[in-house]
Amino acid sequence: MSLLELDNCTVRFGGLTAVSCLSMRVDENELVGLIGPNGAGKTTVFNVITGVYRPTEGAITYAGTSIAGKRSYEITGHGIARTFQNIRLFGSLSVFDNVRVAFHLRLEHDARHSLWRGRAFRQEEKDVEAQAMEMLEIFHLGKFRDAPSRSLPYGDQRRLEIVRALATRPKLLLLDEPAAGMNPTEKVELMSLIRFVEEKYKVSVLLVEHDMQVVMNICRRIIVLDYGVKIAEGAPEEVRADPKVIQAYLGQD
Amino acid sequence: MIAALAVVLVAQLFSRHINGYYYDVMIKIGINIILAVSLNLINGYTGQFSLGHAGFMSVGAYTAAAFTMHAGSSAPPMVLFFAALILGGLAAALAGALVGAPSLRLKGDYLAIVTLGFGEIIRVIVRNIDSLGGALGLNGIPPYTNLFWVYGMAIICAYVVLTMVHSSYGRGFLAVRDDEVAAEAMGLNTTRYKIVAFVVGSFFAGIAGGLYGHYTLSIDPKGFDFNRSIEIVVMVIVGGMGNTAGVVAAAIILTLLPEWLRPLAQYRMVLYSFLLIVIMLTRPQGLFSWRRSAKPALRA
Description:
The structure holds 2 protein chains of 2 kinds. By secondary structure, chain A is an alpha/beta fold. Chain A has helices at 42-49, 72-78, 95-101, 111-116, 119-138, 154-166, 184-201, 212-218, 236-241, 243-250, and strands at residues 2-13, 16-27, 31-35, 57-62, 65-66, 80-82, 172-176, 204-208, 221-226, 229-234. Chain B is an all-alpha fold. Chain B has a domain at 2-8 and 28-225. Helix content of chain B is 70%, strand content 1%. In chain B, strands 1-2 form a two-stranded antiparallel ribbon. The relative contact order of chain B is 0.19. The model of chain B is unreliable at 292-300 (pLDDT under 50). Chains A and B meet through helix 2, helix 3, helix 4 and helix 5 of A and helix 6, helix 7, helix 8 and helix 9 of B.
């Protein structure tokens, strides 16, 4: 069944239509790619799904509930997490704290409890620490635990962003150009990382990416946008052969 | 914390032997510590640039003073004063929520201007209320403030801010400061975080106001003007945004500095300002921040 569904979504900024009558869906445990030339509206699609923008027209439903126009943190609460095209870690916070913050939605204690530091509060802090560290170890970031996140190498920052998003326990993970700025070795690592995440955490992944090697390799279905309009959708081989896609994006060999 | 409070109590018992001038400076330092540490929660940890701290302080000062002056004196002064301080803090916290809720959609400079406007509005309102003494101020406030109250409250304030920030929930304040969009995307209700910071910060500003009023024994609107807010902001910046120990040190040093410079007579404030400029040029991350790399202190 479909997890996320966009039904005739339009996003306009004044006179500019960034996304036009877009209908698409992401099913459970599916890896979907979203590609298109620069300015095609891919990131806008992400922003409208995650509540940064409100759709001008159309509906967005997630697992049967409408999420259009809800605030970002509420949508995250429903189970959608994301990373950003230009990395947006909490730069001055440590690697550990970056992940810890993402446990927020599941915390039972808040500012008041932190004053008394009761037993239940301390237990929860311990649990959060253990879980956050476990995730960091899985993704080989444990050794950076106390380093400010902005001091990490680029590839590790990308990885940390994915870990942080996973810490919110999403069912749907949106990755915005995770391979941007990576070298070929890092890209190969990234592909196995995304497959690993999908299997281990049982999430669906919607991936915006310019790197065709990455997209064609890991996505089972690809949606192509051009000027905010969906021009093609299908399996990698179909999309690659589609004349409209070649014309708008891939180019002739 | 309890041990620290005990030390303060003992210090108070010996305060009779302290020279009057030193006593006065110590009280001022303590009050400034409360103001700077509480503002640090708003400006430093949560990154919301507020210029209205003196305004919140005046709400607390007038509320507390009006309470001790008008409430029946049947209760023992200690109890009366404690109630007055809490009441002043709550009034300031309420003001913080009222200002905070609508204006927290604003960022940086815009928020700074709104909070600045708020501080001025409070001042003008108080000046025009005759029952609060108008421009003449409120006189004859009972002298309840002493070292125990001031430093006791300073310790409680520092404890509250530090414990709040050092928890999984509290890391959210710093996350909001570092990147609001990412914080929302991680499930944090950023508006709520900002309001909590404003309410808690204003509460302690109100307490500091109550302590101030019951020490100077007379308060007038001029004492809580824009310059006073700036003074507190400077302490936070010099100490290092989001560094409580540094901000405490800065509150102490910046209160003492004008005193040390007294021999210079009329050139005193010139040199004071000059030193501030030097500090900002050489250590923009704050005098006492070593861990973080240099970054512009004013990110508003």
